[in-house]
Amino acid sequence: MAVFVALLRAVNVGGTGKLPMADLRAMAEALGFDNIATYIQSGNLVFTSDLAAEEVLAGLDDALTAHFGKSPGIMLRALDELEALYARMPFQDAQPSQVLVTFLQEETAPDALEHMVAADGEEAVVLGSEIVVHYPNGQGRSKLKLPALKPGTARNLNTVRKLLELARERG
């Protein structure tokens, strides 16, 4: 059994993409996933499955598309991928709530940070299919412009740590 973390894009944010976590757990159960857990209301799903990652992703995408009428975007990571990401995490001395990891579906282009405008001293690091941004003054007031973040979904470092903990418990 492989352990997976699915991060859904634009779920329960700003009044759009309504999806109670009980419904998300029920979808995962109907797909045959085991050891299912959700974390906070923003579309974080942790589970185990005998299926290959591509099959897991396809099943989730079909179920969520049926629910929303369109695909919300799913970033799927296996436990070992999340472990590797966390081991390479920059900005270790920053407040975890000021570090956001944007998960993307594909590897980030080498020039992804070229057009970054960081008026408030934000720093970003590309780690494969994730971009990690430190917002020294918090994200809420930031004027950061980084087009490479748009197709992804972001979680702060506290959430990433909790998802990793939940995944480890299932591994």
Automatic annotation (TrEMBL):
One of the Pfam families matching this protein, by short name: DUF1697
SUPFAM superfamilies: SP0830-like (SSF160379)
Source species, domain of life: Bacteria
Transmembrane segments: none
Cited PANTHER family: BLL4334 PROTEIN, DUF1697 DOMAIN-CONTAINING PROTEIN
Name of this protein: DUF1697 domain-containing protein
